[in-house]
């Protein structure tokens, strides 16, 4: 019986997806390999979208105040300033 694979982290899935895109963009794969890579890429894209949606839901729950969700605009510039590292 095959052991279950441990789910990849968002970063791992995104990294693998980037590698697949590079391979597909190179254009030197046999059709069968390109199709298999494309299928894997679609699966990884869905996994990443699901992880992002889950993270968004968690943030909304954490931002809930008095039974109402307070949505705030994220300003990447001020977030970098808040870290104090300028990045």
Write the layout of secondary structure elements.
Layout: H1 10-26, H2 31-63, E1 64-65, E2 68-69, H3 76-83
Antiparallel strand pairs: 1-2
Helix pairs in contact: 1-2
Supply the key terms.
single chain; 87 residues; mainly alpha; Helix Hairpins; two-stranded antiparallel sheet; 2 strands; 5% strand
Instruction: Please identify, by name, the CATH architecture of the domain at 10-64.
Output: Orthogonal Bundle
- State the distance separating the first and last CA atoms: 47 Å
Approximate shape: elongated
As for the CATH topology of the domain at 10-64, it is Helix Hairpins
Strand content: under 5%
Order of helices and strands: HHEEH
The level of helicity is 55-70%
Can you walk me through this structure?
- This protein is mainly alpha-helical.
- The chain has a domain at 10-64: Exonuclease VII, small subunit (Helix Hairpins).
- It is 67% helix and 5% strand.
- The chain contains three helices and two strands, in the order H-H-E-E-H.
- The chain has helices spanning 10-26, 31-63, 76-83; strands at residues 64-65, 68-69.
- It has a two-stranded antiparallel ribbon.
- Helix 1 (10-26) packs antiparallel against helix 2 (31-63).
- The longest helix has 33 residues, at 31-63.
- It is elongated, with a radius of gyration of 19 Å.
- The N and C termini lie far apart (47 Å).
- Mean pLDDT is 80; it is low at 79-83.
Describe the structure concisely.
This protein is about 65% helix and about 5% strand. The chain has helices at about 10-25, 30-65, 75-85, and strands spanning about 65, 70.
């Amino acid at each position: 019986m095959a052991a279950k694979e441990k789910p990849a982290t968002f970063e791992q899935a995104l990294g693998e997806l980037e590698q697949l895109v590079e391979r597909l963009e190179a254009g030197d794969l046999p059709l069968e390999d390109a199709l298999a890579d494309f299928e894997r890429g679609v699966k990884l894209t869905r996994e990443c979208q699901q992880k992002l949606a889950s993270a968004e839901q968690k943030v909304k729950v954490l931002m809930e105040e008095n039974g109402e969700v307070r949505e705030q605009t994220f300003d990447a510039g001020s977030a970098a300033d808040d870290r104090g590292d300028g990045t």
